[in-house]
Amino acid sequence: MLANMFNDLSVVQQARERAGRKSGGKEATADQIYSDILRQDYEDYINNFRGYEERLLALTDDTSIVDNARESALTQSRIAGEIQARNLERYGGAGMSAVQRQQQQRAAQRGDQLTLAGTVNNARVAQREVNQALLSELIGIGQGVNASALAGLGTAAQNEVARRGAYRNARSQYRSALIGGGTAVLAAFGI
Question: Rounded to whole angstroms, how far apart are CA atoms 84 and 50?
């Protein structure tokens, strides 16, 4: 915790020094310091996070689950065909006629095609869910950052209004004190 506080103070000190250099060595204003901190935060975002976010956004169009499902279904079909051929070699036709064996092969082919279609359809649904979840997470992160930034801007605006109000009050108190002091001096001289 102490290290984080020191790091935050270091960032503010660096921003203050940069703002002072920009203003010709004069004392940096709060606006200049705040501007430098925001600029540094933006540069940190660009250097450290932007590439990562762009890679995540590119993943929302990913089709790897569907691609793998096709390969997996074709492999399963090939293995099932090899098993059927091996069983046919081992056990013969098991008393089946040539027409029956042909019908068995057709049924296996239909099963293979149905398996392929079912696997790919399920993979498409799963892929869509994964891509939508990733996109929702990215949108949520963006909205959180935006809400945080807007809250910060709102606080800054409130502080500016309070600062102006305090200045006006101080100025009117100063004038009142001057008038009151002038009135007291005039009263003392009997004028």
Answer: 53
Contact 160, 106 (CB under 8 A): no
Whether the pTM exceeds 0.85: the reply is no
Residue 8 lies in a domain: yes
User: DSSP for the chain?
Assistant: -HHHHHHHHHHHHHHHHHHHHHTTTSPPPHHHHHHHHHHHHHHHHHHHTHHHHHHHHHHTT--HHHHHHHHHHHHHHHHHHHHHHHHHHHHTTTT--HHHHHHHHHHHHHHHHHHHHHHHHHHHHHHHHHHHHHHHHHHHHHHHHHHHHHHHHHHHHHHHHHHHHHHHHHHHHHHHHHHHHHHHHHHHHT-
Q: What is the CA radius of gyration of the chain?
A: 38
The reported pLDDT for the residue numbered 128 is 92
Is the pLDDT assigned to residue 122 strictly greater than 90?
Answer: yes
29 domain residue, yes or no: yes
**Total tally of structural domains belonging to the chain:** 1
Q: Are 172 and 87 in contact (CB under 8 A)?
A: no
The reply to whether 75 falls in a domain is: no
- pLDDT tens column, 7-21: 555 655 665 566 555
Q: Within a domain: residue 103?
A: no
- Domain holding 36, by residue range, is 1-48
Mean pLDDT (whole number) for 113-122: 90
- Residues 38-57: what's their mean pLDDT? 82
